[in-house]
Specification:
Jelly Rolls, 3 helices, alpha+beta, single chain, 5-stranded antiparallel sheet, 13% helix
Length: 175
């Protein structure tokens, strides 16, 4: 998304205001989480500033599934709850780096690396993320691989994941 800066005389206070970050997102979904994004699309005053943020709400045991931000590093602060976080280093190591975070803890996910979060508790959890881009993008791995439109041909995924093609069809049917 490319946005152009407004002429100064057309700028108004609402370009720099986002309301609602205090509201819990709807976590009644298959993964038990919701991200309320505050990027340039929601807050035009972020244009050209290179920053954005999100509130992530987690139902008990909910996850923010493996995903990546192609244009941003993410820094996450836990506001409530106990959250397992992790990222995977790039090829050839593909090493998993994880940590359990408590309220007040901060963790960084380097730009472009696949990462995730999981609420370890039986209560709701909340985290705030800062991102180093006004338009960080998000690529949720399972959605992209198994929910593309049109589908990636089943035999390609079966070979890539080294499973029977019927397993791929079953997974694709969920997306």
């Amino acid at each position: 998304m490319v946005l152009f800066a407004k002429m100064q005389k057309l700028v108004h206070a609402d370009d720099f205001l986002f309301r609602g970050l205090h509201l819990m997102g709807n976590t009644s979904n298959d993964v038990g989480s919701n991200a309320t994004t505050v990027a340039v699309a929601q807050l035009p005053g972020l244009n050209t500033l290179g920053i954005s943020m999100a509130r992530i709400d987690f139902a008990p045991m909910g996850i923010n599934p493996p995903h990546t931000h192609p244009r941003a590093t993410e820094i996450l602060t836990v506001n409530e709850g106990r959250i397992l976080v992790g990222f995977i280093t790039s090829n050839p190591e593909n090493r998993l780096i994880t940590k359990v975070l408590e309220k007040g803890d901060v963790f960084v996910f380097p730009q472009g690396l696949i990462h995730f979060q999981k609420n370890l508790g039986h209560e709701y959890a909340i985290a705030i993320a800062g991102l180093s881009s006004q338009n960080p993008g998000v690529i949720t791995i399972a959605n992209v691989v198994f929910g593309s439109n049109p589908d990636i041909v089943g035999d390609i995924l079966a070979k890539a994941f080294q499973v029977d093609i019927n397993v791929i069809y079953q997974i694709q049917s969920k997306f």
